[in-house]
Amino acid sequence: MNIPSNPPLEDELGDVLEKAMHRAGLTDESLAVRTGVRAGRILDAIDYRSDLTTDELRLLAAALGLNEVGLCALGTGRYPQAEIGVLPFCVWPLRMAHGIGVANAYLVGECGSDRAVLFDSGAGLGALEAVWPHSVRRLDAVFLTHVEPEHAGGLCEVVARFAVQAAFVPRGAEAPCGRPVGEGETKVFGPLEITAYTTPGHAAAHNCYVVRAPAAKTGARLLVSGDLVFAGSAGGGYFSHEQLQTNLRRVLHAVPANTVIAPGHGPLTTVENELRYNPFLV
Ligand SMILES: [Fe+2]
Fold first, then answer.
1. What is the pLDDT of residues 160-186, one digit of tens each?
2. What spacing in Å lies between the alpha carbon of 59 and ligand 1's midpoint?
3. Ligand 1 mean position, distance from CA 119 (Å)
């Protein structure tokens, strides 16, 4: 599979509607009764054949508690792309095909250095090596957002291959090569300061990480969000819709608006863009 460097959004209108209907416990029939939008038209949208009008999208957004502007933008294929500001360190998105989708891992390090920190470890060492930047030869640490095959499959292989001293996983995660890290814990590697946020919702054990370079006078922070939030959507609330929603709001309001979001799927975005447009943030 060819992996685009600027990937499309992870979720289309249909995915967002389906996730929101699960969250609200509504079927196409019950949503149709609430909104007056015909069930067949809702199903068409979920099947990526949306013909919904702006008025219908507004009715659906109101009934599902979604951001109306963002939902209408998705519905017209014009979800706003964030302007990514300058970061005080280098970030390499590592995009790897997995099943029918693409999952992201990230290397973060001082620009010009051969050392970096890895966030998520992809499906396996082979998949990682296929997209690994030549300039990065040493790993100071690995941090996992959550333990699912496309995000954590390569952890033990990566630890062995790079003789990594520190591999961190969310508290409660079953990962043999990692040690737990949770809310408020901060680790320092060279110029990078990495703070964990405990963010269950998509999975019971899920972390986000905020990366700063305290010595840098300017530059934004990076939020490695795993499957908590994507550009234009959020992860599925497979463990708890309520906790995912609570953590989504909590974390995005805890960091500056210019913070760059590096999600587990889809393109980079910013906190400002998602607070304004993300369908799941109202
Ligand atoms: Fe994922």
1. 999 999 999 999 999 889 999 999 999
2. 30
3. 13
